[in-house]
Write a structure and sequence with these properties.
single chain; 264 residues; mainly beta; Immunoglobulin-like; 2 domains; 5-stranded antiparallel beta sheet; 2 helices; 17 strands; 12% helix
Protein backbone atom coordinates (compact mmCIF):
# COMPACT_ATOMS: atom_id res chain seq x y z
CA UNK A 1 0.00 0.00 0.00
CA UNK A 2 1.28 3.39 -0.93
CA UNK A 3 1.06 6.27 1.64
CA UNK A 4 0.69 9.82 0.42
CA UNK A 5 1.56 13.06 2.28
CA UNK A 6 -1.58 15.21 2.54
CA UNK A 7 0.25 18.17 4.19
CA UNK A 8 1.18 20.76 1.63
CA UNK A 9 2.81 24.13 2.02
CA UNK A 10 0.57 27.01 0.96
CA UNK A 11 1.37 28.50 -2.31
CA UNK A 12 0.11 31.35 -4.42
CA UNK A 13 -2.58 33.48 -2.84
CA UNK A 14 -2.53 31.43 0.34
CA UNK A 15 1.14 32.13 0.97
CA UNK A 16 0.72 35.79 0.35
CA UNK A 17 -2.23 35.97 2.76
CA UNK A 18 -0.25 34.26 5.43
CA UNK A 19 2.57 36.74 5.04
CA UNK A 20 0.17 39.67 5.27
CA UNK A 21 -1.26 38.31 8.50
CA UNK A 22 2.19 37.85 9.94
CA UNK A 23 3.17 41.44 9.09
CA UNK A 24 -0.04 42.79 10.63
CA UNK A 25 0.63 40.86 13.83
CA UNK A 26 4.16 42.28 14.09
CA UNK A 27 2.87 45.82 13.53
CA UNK A 28 0.39 45.45 16.41
CA UNK A 29 3.16 44.15 18.70
CA UNK A 30 5.48 47.04 17.82
CA UNK A 31 2.77 49.67 18.34
CA UNK A 32 1.90 48.19 21.72
CA UNK A 33 5.54 48.16 22.75
CA UNK A 34 5.98 51.81 21.80
CA UNK A 35 2.87 52.76 23.76
CA UNK A 36 4.15 50.98 26.87
CA UNK A 37 7.52 52.64 26.49
CA UNK A 38 5.99 56.12 26.29
CA UNK A 39 3.92 55.46 29.42
CA UNK A 40 7.02 54.48 31.45
CA UNK A 41 8.81 57.88 30.85
CA UNK A 42 6.65 60.77 32.14
CA UNK A 43 7.11 64.22 30.65
CA UNK A 44 9.41 66.61 32.58
CA UNK A 45 7.53 69.08 34.83
CA UNK A 46 8.44 72.69 35.75
CA UNK A 47 11.67 73.29 37.76
CA UNK A 48 11.42 73.69 41.52
CA UNK A 49 11.79 77.30 42.70
CA UNK A 50 14.95 78.44 44.48
CA UNK A 51 15.77 81.10 47.06
CA UNK A 52 18.38 83.73 48.00
CA UNK A 53 19.53 84.39 51.55
CA UNK A 54 20.77 88.00 51.86
CA UNK A 55 23.16 89.04 54.65
CA UNK A 56 24.09 92.68 55.39
CA UNK A 57 27.08 94.06 57.32
CA UNK A 58 27.39 97.80 57.95
CA UNK A 59 30.46 99.61 59.28
CA UNK A 60 31.56 103.18 59.71
CA UNK A 61 30.07 106.38 61.11
CA UNK A 62 26.47 107.58 61.14
CA UNK A 63 25.31 104.21 59.85
CA UNK A 64 21.97 103.46 58.25
CA UNK A 65 19.52 101.31 60.19
CA UNK A 66 17.79 99.60 57.25
CA UNK A 67 17.86 99.19 53.47
CA UNK A 68 15.64 98.06 50.61
CA UNK A 69 16.66 94.73 49.06
CA UNK A 70 16.63 94.81 45.25
CA UNK A 71 16.71 91.69 43.08
CA UNK A 72 17.25 92.53 39.42
CA UNK A 73 16.10 96.04 40.31
CA UNK A 74 12.84 94.90 41.93
CA UNK A 75 12.17 95.61 45.61
CA UNK A 76 11.84 92.53 47.80
CA UNK A 77 11.35 94.25 51.15
CA UNK A 78 13.36 95.91 53.93
CA UNK A 79 16.37 94.51 55.76
CA UNK A 80 18.30 95.76 58.78
CA UNK A 81 21.82 97.18 58.68
CA UNK A 82 23.26 93.95 60.11
CA UNK A 83 20.65 91.32 59.39
CA UNK A 84 19.54 88.55 57.03
CA UNK A 85 16.43 87.72 55.04
CA UNK A 86 15.47 84.96 52.59
CA UNK A 87 13.74 85.62 49.28
CA UNK A 88 11.81 82.58 48.03
CA UNK A 89 9.95 81.54 44.87
CA UNK A 90 12.72 82.36 42.40
CA UNK A 91 13.15 80.60 39.06
CA UNK A 92 16.57 78.99 38.50
CA UNK A 93 18.72 81.78 37.03
CA UNK A 94 21.46 84.28 37.85
CA UNK A 95 20.30 87.33 39.78
CA UNK A 96 21.80 90.71 40.69
CA UNK A 97 21.22 91.61 44.34
CA UNK A 98 21.67 95.19 45.57
CA UNK A 99 20.63 97.50 48.40
CA UNK A 100 18.56 100.64 47.96
CA UNK A 101 17.62 103.63 50.13
CA UNK A 102 21.18 104.24 51.38
CA UNK A 103 21.92 107.64 52.89
CA UNK A 104 24.38 109.88 51.08
CA UNK A 105 27.28 109.04 53.40
CA UNK A 106 26.91 105.28 52.90
CA UNK A 107 27.98 103.17 49.92
CA UNK A 108 27.46 99.52 49.01
CA UNK A 109 28.13 97.26 46.06
CA UNK A 110 25.79 94.88 44.23
CA UNK A 111 26.61 91.20 43.76
CA UNK A 112 25.48 88.43 41.42
CA UNK A 113 24.37 85.00 42.58
CA UNK A 114 23.26 81.85 40.73
CA UNK A 115 20.08 80.17 42.00
CA UNK A 116 19.62 76.45 41.31
CA UNK A 117 16.30 74.61 41.36
CA UNK A 118 15.28 73.74 44.90
CA UNK A 119 18.39 75.33 46.46
CA UNK A 120 19.09 78.46 48.53
CA UNK A 121 22.01 80.66 47.42
CA UNK A 122 23.67 83.09 49.85
CA UNK A 123 24.92 86.59 49.12
CA UNK A 124 26.61 88.97 51.57
CA UNK A 125 26.40 92.72 50.99
CA UNK A 126 28.66 95.15 52.85
CA UNK A 127 27.94 98.84 53.43
CA UNK A 128 30.50 101.45 54.51
CA UNK A 129 29.43 104.78 55.98
CA UNK A 130 31.74 107.76 56.45
CA UNK A 131 31.52 111.03 58.33
CA UNK A 132 29.70 113.60 56.24
CA UNK A 133 31.62 116.85 56.66
CA UNK A 134 34.68 118.30 58.33
CA UNK A 135 35.51 121.84 59.43
CA UNK A 136 38.93 123.41 58.99
CA UNK A 137 40.34 125.45 61.86
CA UNK A 138 43.38 127.72 61.99
CA UNK A 139 44.28 128.46 65.60
CA UNK A 140 46.97 130.75 66.95
CA UNK A 141 48.93 129.00 69.68
CA UNK A 142 47.44 129.47 73.16
CA UNK A 143 45.15 132.28 72.01
CA UNK A 144 42.34 130.72 69.93
CA UNK A 145 39.97 128.24 71.59
CA UNK A 146 37.18 126.71 69.47
CA UNK A 147 33.82 125.32 70.49
CA UNK A 148 33.62 122.36 68.11
CA UNK A 149 29.85 122.00 68.47
CA UNK A 150 29.06 125.61 67.48
CA UNK A 151 32.17 126.48 65.46
CA UNK A 152 32.67 129.63 67.53
CA UNK A 153 36.18 130.63 68.67
CA UNK A 154 36.99 132.30 71.96
CA UNK A 155 40.06 134.55 71.90
CA UNK A 156 42.18 134.54 75.03
CA UNK A 157 44.73 137.37 75.33
CA UNK A 158 48.25 136.15 76.15
CA UNK A 159 46.85 132.69 76.82
CA UNK A 160 44.62 133.79 79.69
CA UNK A 161 40.87 133.31 79.26
CA UNK A 162 38.24 135.30 81.14
CA UNK A 163 35.92 132.30 80.95
CA UNK A 164 36.38 128.55 80.91
CA UNK A 165 33.00 128.05 79.26
CA UNK A 166 32.19 127.88 75.56
CA UNK A 167 35.35 126.24 74.21
CA UNK A 168 36.77 122.71 73.95
CA UNK A 169 40.52 122.86 73.24
CA UNK A 170 43.58 124.95 72.60
CA UNK A 171 46.98 124.47 70.96
CA UNK A 172 50.16 124.66 72.98
CA UNK A 173 53.67 125.15 71.55
CA UNK A 174 56.45 122.80 72.61
CA UNK A 175 60.03 123.56 71.64
CA UNK A 176 61.04 120.11 72.90
CA UNK A 177 59.17 118.20 70.18
CA UNK A 178 58.84 118.13 66.42
CA UNK A 179 56.26 118.94 65.32
CA UNK A 180 55.70 121.50 68.04
CA UNK A 181 51.89 121.51 68.31
CA UNK A 182 50.16 119.84 71.26
CA UNK A 183 46.37 119.70 71.59
CA UNK A 184 45.06 120.27 75.11
CA UNK A 185 41.40 119.91 76.07
CA UNK A 186 39.28 122.02 78.39
CA UNK A 187 39.53 120.04 81.61
CA UNK A 188 37.34 122.47 83.52
CA UNK A 189 34.22 121.52 81.53
CA UNK A 190 35.08 117.81 81.42
CA UNK A 191 36.12 117.60 77.77
CA UNK A 192 37.81 114.26 77.08
CA UNK A 193 40.65 113.43 74.69
CA UNK A 194 42.05 110.28 73.04
CA UNK A 195 45.05 109.80 70.74
CA UNK A 196 45.18 107.34 67.83
CA UNK A 197 48.80 107.09 66.63
CA UNK A 198 49.38 105.51 63.24
CA UNK A 199 45.97 106.63 61.96
CA UNK A 200 45.04 109.42 59.57
CA UNK A 201 41.69 111.14 59.17
CA UNK A 202 41.24 109.46 55.78
CA UNK A 203 41.90 105.95 57.13
CA UNK A 204 40.04 106.26 60.44
CA UNK A 205 37.69 103.31 60.99
CA UNK A 206 34.90 102.47 63.36
CA UNK A 207 37.20 99.92 65.02
CA UNK A 208 39.79 102.65 65.68
CA UNK A 209 37.13 104.75 67.37
CA UNK A 210 35.72 101.89 69.41
CA UNK A 211 39.21 100.99 70.60
CA UNK A 212 40.07 104.53 71.75
CA UNK A 213 40.59 105.31 75.43
CA UNK A 214 39.25 108.71 76.43
CA UNK A 215 40.60 110.65 79.38
CA UNK A 216 40.30 114.06 81.01
CA UNK A 217 44.04 113.97 81.74
CA UNK A 218 46.61 115.87 79.68
CA UNK A 219 48.31 114.01 76.80
CA UNK A 220 51.40 115.93 75.71
CA UNK A 221 52.08 114.03 72.49
CA UNK A 222 52.86 116.15 69.39
CA UNK A 223 50.11 116.37 66.77
CA UNK A 224 51.56 115.03 63.50
CA UNK A 225 50.09 113.76 60.22
CA UNK A 226 50.20 110.12 61.36
CA UNK A 227 47.97 110.74 64.36
CA UNK A 228 44.27 111.37 64.89
CA UNK A 229 43.13 113.10 68.05
CA UNK A 230 39.58 112.49 69.29
CA UNK A 231 37.77 115.14 71.30
CA UNK A 232 34.57 114.35 73.22
CA UNK A 233 32.92 117.67 73.98
CA UNK A 234 30.99 118.60 77.09
CA UNK A 235 27.82 117.84 75.10
CA UNK A 236 29.01 114.30 74.36
CA UNK A 237 29.69 114.71 70.64
CA UNK A 238 32.93 113.21 69.31
CA UNK A 239 35.18 114.91 66.75
CA UNK A 240 38.20 113.49 64.97
CA UNK A 241 41.07 115.93 64.42
CA UNK A 242 43.55 115.31 61.62
CA UNK A 243 45.64 116.72 58.76
CA UNK A 244 47.64 119.14 60.93
CA UNK A 245 49.77 121.83 59.26
CA UNK A 246 52.01 124.11 61.31
CA UNK A 247 52.87 127.68 60.36
CA UNK A 248 55.84 128.68 62.47
CA UNK A 249 55.82 132.19 61.08
CA UNK A 250 52.21 132.87 62.03
CA UNK A 251 52.57 130.71 65.14
CA UNK A 252 49.43 128.82 64.20
CA UNK A 253 48.13 125.33 63.50
CA UNK A 254 45.60 124.38 60.84
CA UNK A 255 43.68 121.09 61.11
CA UNK A 256 40.39 119.45 60.11
CA UNK A 257 37.76 118.41 62.64
CA UNK A 258 35.15 115.82 61.57
CA UNK A 259 32.08 114.91 63.59
CA UNK A 260 32.10 111.10 63.90
CA UNK A 261 29.58 110.49 66.69
CA UNK A 262 26.66 112.53 67.90
CA UNK A 263 24.38 112.25 70.89
CA UNK A 264 21.57 113.45 68.64
Amino acid sequence: MTLTNDVHRPSGDGARGLQRGWHALMAVILIGSAACSSKSTPAAGPSLPGAIKVNTQTAGFFKDTSYDVLVNGQSKGAIGANAEMTITGLDPATYTVDLGNLTDNCTGQADSVAVAAGDTATVSLGVTCTYTTSTSYTLVYQRDRPDLDSGQITTCSFGFCSTQQGWDLWVDWSSASTPHSIILQNQTTGVEIAHLPGVSLNTLTEADYQGATFTTDTIRAPFDSTRVILIKTDLGNVYALGNPVEDTTAQSLTFDAALIDSIG
